[in-house]
Amino acid sequence: MRILGTEAALGTNAGAASSFGDADDVRLVNSGSTNRLVSITDSSGNVVASFTLIAGEVSFVRKKREEKIFAAHAEILGVGIVTP
Fold first, then answer.
1. Quick one: how far is CA 69 from the chain centroid?
2. What contacts 43, CB < 8 A, 6 or more positions away?
3. For 13-59, how does the pLDDT look when each residue is reduced to its tens digit (9 = 90+)?
4. d(Cα 63, Cα 71) in Å, to the nearest integer?
5. What residues form DSSP beta bridges with 37?
6. Fewer Cβ neighbours under 10 Å: the N or C end of the chain?
7. Are the C-beta atoms of residues 23 and 78 closer than 8 Å to each other?
């Protein structure tokens, strides 16, 4: 796995969602103690998918380049990655 940037808190609404640059894969971690909703939007800001990230869990998400990700709380941290 190659890291493409600096891990940062996700935005908490569709307008603040991140595309993670040219990354198709994103590593997410819930740094908090509460389960949190993570949402993926299309290029128009419409939610196309969502899931719950369990407290303390790390997850890897594959998305289209034009899609963006946001979370219900800034405890969700993300960074774009390249996987072999």
1. 4
2. 66, 67
3. 999 999 999 899 999 999 999 999 999 999 999 999 999 999 999 99
4. 15
5. 52
6. C
7. no
Question: Tokens for 65?
Answer: 């380049």
- Whether 4 has a pLDDT exceeding 90, the answer reads yes
Residue showing tokens 């993926």: 40
Beta-bridge partners for 68: 41
CB 29 within 8 A of CB 58: yes
CATH number of 2-82: 2.60.120
- Quote the CA–CA distance of 2 and 32 in Å, as a whole number: 25
Contacts for 15-18: CB closer than 8 Å, 24+ residues apart:
15/45, 16/70, 17/41, 17/45, 17/68, 17/69, 17/70, 18/68, 18/69, 18/70, 18/78
